[in-house]
Amino acid sequence: MGTEEKPMQERPEPQETNNLNTQSAPEATPSPIDGGYGWVCGTAAAVTNGHSWGFNFAYAVFLAYYLDNDVVPGSSPMQYAFIGGLSLTSLLAVSPLTTILMRRYGIRPIIFFGVVLKTASLVIASFATQLWHLFLTQGLLFGAGVGLMFIPTAAVVPQWFTANGSLASGISLSGPALEELYIHWPRVP
Length: 189
Description:
Layout lengths: L36 H21 L1 H11 L7 H17 L1 H11 L1 H19 L5 H26 L8 H9 L1 H10 L5
Helix pairs in contact: 1-6, 1-7, 1-8, 2-3, 3-6, 4-5, 4-6, 5-6
Keywords: Membrane, Transmembrane, Transmembrane helix
């Protein structure tokens, strides 16, 4: 009566294979390489960290100068010492803001702005005539500049490594110790 049976279309049976190389892998982002430019980034981070944390750790040199030359007459040694502590506090306090700025603008502009801020703060501090000038420049601005430099360098190095990430991070974070050794080496008796 006009009803024709349509043949069933054959579907190929899925083939099971134990060979992982023949299966197509889902597209993935390229994995970081262990070496090459990653080690350049690690070395640059070590130098950057050395110049940022190294200056903070060497605040005793500034403190000795301030005390010997009585830069701001009538200031106590504790007030001068507070400048170094304020610098470390602002370095760590700026970390959340630095992370937000890194996500928005990337790593390079943030590090560059940190270098400019750190350098400008030390140059402006050399013209200080009152104690609050030093609090603002060498305390707050210098610490903020160092924070803008350190947080990105701590984040960039592990992105280049899969197997040697801990070693590379350790080398990049050893920059301050190497900088201190370099700065104080001529003074060791």
